[in-house]
């Protein structure tokens, strides 16, 4: 996996993970809060229904109170009138009153008159709840509530019902009424459905925002990657152009040296040999012939020196034969001997194990620095340091010359060559100078890479 892909993953994965965790916690808390709200709503509705049942029973008691307090009426007539009043009392669409004896015999049941006179003490709902027994227990305890399942008119479907009962103390009858709870549970289900829909919408919104954010991050990554590729292509194109210019410049210099130096020397040698040949044909004085041969030999020796000098410029033989450290030391010794400038240096060990591209770059960099010092610095001391930290090799060249203000001088061909050579091996270059305090050239080269050849 490429580094850019890893960086993109390091950006997207934490974002997605954090969003997923926050969303999960938010949804969990929302659901928990929803359950709490629904439980509180159910409790409040049940309490409201309980109070309504108490009020309805109180109204029924008020309706039959005149009959109960009238002891002049015969007992059976009073019971008949109470039953009649309770049978006729209705409220809402499905509200009615019922009455039972302590033995569980039904006395009043307006919606299901077939139960009147039946003993329902052992009657159970579908959940096995002995509802009449439990209602009698609640009534005998001074009045109370009980929940069970009963048929709801007019469809007579079984629904949950909450009843409140009290005793008619004159005859110990259990009288009460009840309210069906299906509307409460319908409201709870509807409310829960709406809350779940809100949670789902919020979740989809968060997911949509997350997807949009991830897509935006990926898009930005692709745009940045594309931009970097374009910059890299432009930089590579510029670097290639500089490299070509460097090659052309060196080839032009090499051609000029061949034409102006070696070619002239060879022509001179040829001329001397032709002179000797003519003198031999004329049988001239041997001393004169010998003199011309000595001059021809001198010209040939000079030509050999020129060839060696050009060969050394192209690729120092010491660099191939004895390595970078010896080549640099020899270069510094020759510079000190020629210019009478004091040179000190310190080289890191194992310089001869560097790639060829790094070796030639360091050698040319040192050559260029020494050439600039000799031509422009008026220095008496030069110090060169070459050391390594981890995978980077550092070069420093410090002189005590007259220096200059970098802002006042344009970058010459020598400095440009330094920069371009370092760029070809992905190195970095810097120059600092102060008037009357000398100049310092610094460079850093990554030694873990093996770029294209540089000669």
From TrEMBL:
Its EC number is 2.7.13.3. This is histidine kinase. PANTHER family: NITRATE/NITRITE SENSOR PROTEIN NARX-RELATED, NITRATE_NITRITE SENSOR PROTEIN NARQ. It is a multi-pass membrane protein. It comes from Maribrevibacterium harenarium. The keyword Transmembrane applies. InterPro entries: HATPase_C_sf, HATPase_dom, His_kinase_dom, sCache_2, Sensor_HK_TwoCompSys, Sig_transdc_His_kin_sub3_dim/P, Sig_transdc_His_kinase_MctS. The keyword Cell wall biogenesis/degradation does not apply. GO terms for molecular function: ATP binding; phosphorelay sensor kinase activity; protein dimerization activity.
